[in-house]
UniProtKB/TrEMBL annotation:
Gene3D superfamilies: Ribonuclease H-like superfamily/Ribonuclease H. Residues 24-155 form the Tc1-like transposase DDE domain. InterPro entries: RNaseH-like_sf, RNaseH_sf, Tc1-like_DDE_dom, Transpos_IS630-like. PANTHER family: TRANSPOSASE. This is IS630 family transposase.
Amino acid sequence: MKFREAQAEIEQLVEKSRTGETNLAYVDEAGFAQAQPNRTAWTEKGEVHLITAERGKRLNVLGALISNGTLFTAKFWETTTAAAFGGFLGLLLECSGKPLTVILDNASIHKAKEIQPLLALLKGKGLTLYFLPPYSPELNRIEKLWHKMKYEWMAFKARSAALLEADVTEILDGFGSKYRMTFC
């Protein structure tokens, strides 16, 4: 029930963004590891599928897929914190140039007590947060971007930290030109 209500409400938000009344952003964070995710793999019969699994820090990306088709991101090698998230929202709103509605999940960093004063300030400047119902990542369009990056656009290989950052940066910078998505 809540899922269907959220779908209808998001469609209304999309329509408001189409008329230019507001911007709409789908926001989430994703982590990229030096060893590629390996859920399934195909190999010739009798052969073993191997990839070196270098352990290391994760490259975290905060991203906003904006209704005008652009992508706004911040990359860092540290853990994503509520403070980093709050700062990201402030920069996103500043770049928006008009009222902004952000669609996001209920991660603890999105609702942390420490950033409530900042969120109240940003609300006064035109930011609205729209929290999705639990267990409904398919309503957040940026989830599709993270999936495409990890499982389609990034070659299946182990990477050094520098190569991982270069590969992620290439995709983020090429989004909309070299790397494209369509929504049904």
